[in-house]
Amino acid sequence: MPTEGELFALVDELLVGAPTLPPPAERARLREAAGATQADIARALQTTLKTVKNWEAGRSHPRPPRLQAYIRLLDGWAAKYPASEEPSEPEAPSGAAPGESERPVASVPAAAAPAAEPLAASRPGTVEEPETPAPTPPAPAPAAEVPSPLPAPTVRPVPSQVPAVQAPPVPAGRAATPTTTTPVPSAPSVPSVPAPVPAVAPVPAVAPAPSTLRRPAARKAAPAKPTAVDPRFPHGPLAVLDGDGTAYCVGGIVLECPATTIPELVDWTLGESGIGAPRLHRNGKDSDPLIALTAAAAVRFGLPERLEGFEARRSLRLPDDHPVVKQITRAKWKLTQRGFGPWARIYRPAKVGQRQCVQLAVLSWDALDPRAWGDAADLGPAELARTLGLYATRVLTPRGSTAVTGLELMTAMRPPTRAVRDNATGEWVQGHNPGSLGTRPVDPAPPEAPAEHPVAQGWKGGFLDEEAYQWVRDPKLLSDAECLLPWAVGIDINTAFLAAAARLTVGLGEPVRVERPAFDKKRPGSWLVDLSHVELDPRLPSPFTPSGERPEGPAWYTTATVAYAVELGYDVHPAEAYVREETGAYLDPWHDRLKDAYVVTMADLGVTKDLDEHAFLAAMERHKSLDPGLAAVLSAIKSTVKGGIGKLRERPQGRHYRDGERWPALERPTWRPDIRAAVIAKARVNMHRKMLNTAKATGQYPLAVLSDCVVYASTGPSPLDFLPRTEDGTPAPGTFRLGPGPGLAKHEGTQNMAWAVDLMEQGHNPARHIKGGDAVMDEGE
After folding, report:
1. Is there a smaller number of Cβ atoms within 10 Å at the N or the C end of the chain?
2. Is 486 exposed, middle or buried (CB count within 10 Å of its CB: 0-12, 13-18, 19+)?
3. How does 360-369 read in b/e, with b if 16+ C-beta sit within 10 Å?
4. Residue 154, CA distances (Å) to 3, 157, 212, 260, 380 in order
5. Domain architecture of the chain: domains with CATH
6. Compositionally biased, Pro residues: which spans (predicted)?
């Protein structure tokens, strides 16, 4: 217990006022005027050089007793070297920390009225989804969606060497707001230019909403150039929360979160944090804010650092009687039917103009699957916030696994409903959005369904087998010349499924059965046709089966596969078909966004489209080592493509399922195995077309194919040693071409030819191991 005299002395200090530092630029000027170095100051004050650099940059401030000593040193220099007549930075107002001033928060136009955004009833990747209130008719002018002003969060500069991340885009029709931002020092050399930092806009003279959480006063960072930011979400789409309550956001912004329980965290996130992201489509919904919890943060909120039974990651969840689950229930928040697992969604039924949902990702529970995110979970909080922020601004705020996010991106880019005017009442209501899959799930045709699906029970007519290649050439078909070549070289198609999704017409509605139809390559569907008569060189895989074996008799194929048989010059006479009358390029906007994300991230890693082939191969050798965070983003983008397509045919989960029962995924409009089959078939056909053209141009045939990787015998260890060229040295048309874009090829790996032949003779696939590992297990690579 302090004495009365000690307390009075402390009060006297407050009355006199704490000593203040000059602005950072003035600190550097005074030191340089005195001819001193930062190392000299570090030695005099018995601290580190990095600490002094942070003081002069304004990233941190000295504490007593060094604070008084540093101020005395600067005051002495100021007397000897007075400032010029040039204006200096304004001093911090009373009550702010040294060198800082009050930070304004997002301004909100008073006349703007938010549109209703009810919580979706069905979300990909969940076992069951929460109850959904009746949808509220959407507003016809979604650009005007702005909620009430946010209370001011505590903000401070991030203490790490992390480049800035681009702020979430502003929807069409929304004006950019001049702002102040937190500057962040540049990271080590990366061949990309940091995007603008998310900003914080001024707040109007309106009293902030009341809060049950106590917050310290807001603080301001150094000014930066204005940037376009949705004023509702000044701090970006997500934050990584550490155990000390520090929330690292994109763009180097750091917030102080006072919450100590999960319900308080949800309240803070929705009411004060300014975290979230605007919708990607004018008829869509804003992204729910994401809070990623470090292991220390999980413990802070009463969660176990790890969950027991971790080997069964898909079914992980807290028991219903766990104290944290009880806290959520008592606070009248809800969990989805998946419960509180690695990805927990906490919500209340949506009210008019207000969506109340927060996504939590518990990092120590393996929320970031290393097969998709690499070593991202091992990054520090600030660097992880930058990594997740890049993914969120280029793709979508993560909503679970990359597969779940890939599927939800389809809905975000093609919302199922839009605002339409009811002719009878004149009111705006929700109506079907043309080109989307709508709100009602559609059962597939029997041959398109997996065998356990209810519509497939009792079906004897065969099923679609449109899967990726897994083919190895018969070793007996290897020539002596091929066996004497020194190298086996593998090349891989960049995001082959993404390239196949481009401009792909798919069915949007229900299948219609047709007998003896005339084949029409413009009609998406499934066709029962006999392609066993198609004669191809046995050194090539058959384009009609994933095994590469010649088909035996009639079988079901997608439109892309049958159209390729016609392209090869063969007559086809379908005996039966299931076609769809309502069609469209449903995946086009999904493709375009992911393609842009992939190309931009590759460019950030130094792999640009203007590189020649030699420079491209060299850049690909080193691109993943330049920046671990960007490498994780690239891996996640590729997994989003592959996983999103896979989720279109999600199989039943759990050991207690019985064939013929419906499982939750079937209730999604995006459960569409026919669309998945169409994408995979087109990717396989594209691969065969390139192999066929290569054989015609050079007489070279593949040794093995695994999905989008093909292996050839080669005179040298590089793809340039065997890829076909024209007389002028350019890649032969219609063959494999090296480059960074989707559909182009890259070097997958090189091994000795003897190694490849040995694997082939043992019945193994060289394409699986050409890189030195297992391509199936290393699917994120």
Report:
1. N
2. middle
3. bbbbbbbbbb
4. 33, 11, 16, 16, 21
5. 14-100 (1.10.260), 153-201+219-400 (no CATH)
6. 132-141
